[in-house]
Amino acid sequence: MINYTEKIPNNIYLGRDRVLQRALEHWQPAYLSWWYDMGPNESHNFEVYLRTAISVEPDGWAQFGYVKMPEYRWGIFLQPRDEKRQVNFGTHKGQPAWQDVPGEYRSTLRRIIVTQGDTEPASVEQQRMLGMSCPSLYDLRNIFQVNVEEGRHLWAMVYLLHRYFGRDGREEAEALLARRSGDTDNPRILGAFNEPTPDWLAFYMFTFFTDRDGKFQLCALAESGFDPLSRTCRFMLTEEAHHMFVGETGVGRIIQRTCEVMKENKVDDPSDVRALGVIDLQTIQRYLNFHYSVTLDLYGSDVSSNAANYFTSGLKGRFRETKLEDDHQLHDALYPVSEVIGGKIITKNVPALTALNERLRDDYIEEIRDGVGRWQRVIDQAGIPFRLTLPHKGFHRAIGNFAGHFISPEGEVLTAEAWKKYEFEWLPSPEDHAFVQSLMSGRVAEPGKFANWIAPPLRGINNQPLNFEYVRFN
Ligand code: BYC
User: Fold this and answer.
1) Atom of ligand 1 minimally distant from the CA of 221
2) Average pLDDT of span 345-357
């Protein structure tokens, strides 16, 4: 069970480690000050119907109730230790899982933890204005739930930094509160976390595409031979599922509403669709293209010696590592990777050990494809002849083998000029952003009411009705 009587809720007997407890109690006010500055805008007095974990078991999410967000019980929750757990891959395969940081991997491990930790507050910063234009109380409550849990994911990484990395760890924990999404001088570490999330379509796309990168990266880190990292990631994954649900159903509900309006009014031209106050499917496709391509970059270079080192040292595994049937060392294995040579996309086999980023990206793409297929079904059921497609893997990429090339969504290699000509057929234009913004000028705050551009969800949160007062504004 999680102990909520302490200042910092935890299931790690924090009270027995006075030094750590003091260090974290010192960091806590800095965190809260960051939340007041960079958390959801003007929300500090709202009472929000949030879930709070009471235990780390899969059914430990039983507790729902009204909480003012600055009073949310952020804390440190790890999955229980399995005494028999081993390092399951790399050169240390078969050794007992590490309970302490192996000296030779200290800086590499710290870097992975910092990179993971940096994304969490970044996403809260990216989303901080969206509460001002929510399409319903239900959606407002969901974004706030996502935000407080991203805050807790930051706590998870900060715990590891404080507990296992001494003074460097404390400094990194402070730096996590100092960087800012999109800041020119002190930006967040990874590209996608410096992009704005200007509207709710972008938010749902982000939680569908980018939070799912979170899932796959956390799954790879949950395989780590460094047991405390594995245990903390396992619990974070239970929180992540809801975020992807918000994204998938959010985009699905926007598509559903657009299709309803198109059918009722027998229109299919995008400008006629827009005139009826819903988002045309073409714009939805452009948003999809943007968020998908920017998120693919988050997996890093296709061929990466960093990734090979992480694996060989036992720090970061593959997706579902222990379920894979091979040597878990990748001595002779090969993996296909694409690159652009002489104006053509060529696929060739490289040592699988160096292609681990690409492999994780491919695992991710498979799951994305299924989700996009479910959105397509909404369109098909409405009888509208429109196909949502995933662009080619090389489209609009800034990291890896495709960076610096101009690839169309269909996978043709183009010149910069040719690509530029079509840019805003493929990616959201300033006009698209302005149109989507124009639909979201204010907050829909009456219980049970939904903005015109989105369908209501099938059911409420925790079996509450749709007209439940999910947020009280006070
Ligand atoms: N932007 O060998 P390379 C989440 C850098 S999301 C900017 O290609 P590597 C969440 C790289 O750092 C999950 N820079 O890559 C979602 C390196 O820099 P140095 C977050 C980039 O190291 C929603 C250089 O390029 N977790 O949780 O194999 C809401 C060459 O490196 C980018 C993790 O990412 C980029 N996109 O792999 C909230 C897990 N990509 O060394 C939360 C931890 C690469 O030259 N991170 N670079 O200075 C990692 O495992 C690895 O750092 C990466 C990159 C997979 C990200």
Assistant:
1) 39
2) 98
